[in-house]
Amino acid sequence: xxxxxxxxxxLFPKKWRELFGDxxxxxxDETDLSPASVIDVVGQAGKxxxxxxxxxxxxxxxxxxxxxxxxxxxxxxxxxNILWAPTNPIRAIALIATVGxxxxxxxxxxxxxxxxxxxxxxxxxxx
Length: 127
Hints:
Elements (H helix, E strand, L loop, with lengths): L2 H8 L3 H16 L5 H18 L1 H23 L12 H30 L9
């Protein structure tokens, strides 16, 4: 297997490589690599990394959005602290915008927990 093909396999998450790496490497050996196919493989590896680290990515996104809204609220004089009483419509909207990403993250976690409880994964037993 050439260096390019080994690099393409190495782009995928470790767990995926353990399950499918050998088969994927064999498939790559049998395939002529065009620029479009390389881009497709890189894109798929990226998607799998995002899925594998979904909680981390969601938390980082919520932190970034919340921080941006807090900075805007501080600089515009809507508030002088991180949490404030919604004493007027602007302050209420700003509070929702700042806290909203965390509420969405918590709601997503509860939804995923409920779905996991409703549809448990089948257990794989070794013979």
